[in-house]
Specification:
mainly alpha
């Protein structure tokens, strides 16, 4: 699961880098908008993940 998460983060980072490169040549959004978009994407991704140890019964969590 960790490898999947890292791959998704790398993918999101590559999208962010692409947006930044477009902004650098004047075709895309501003750097600030790219950063905000990237941060929102990462936050949305992590909000979809289950909480750590959520599969364990309450008696086994601690």
């Amino acid at each position: 699961m960790r490898n999947v998460n890292l791959n998704i983060l790398k993918f999101l980072e590559s999208i962010n880098n692409f947006c930044l490169s477009l902004a650098n040549i004047g075709l895309g959004v501003s750097h600030q908008s790219s950063v905000i978009s990237y941060q929102s994407s990462v936050s949305a991704f992590f909000s979809l993940l289950p909480a750590p140890c959520s599969h364990l019964p309450a008696s086994e969590k601690y």
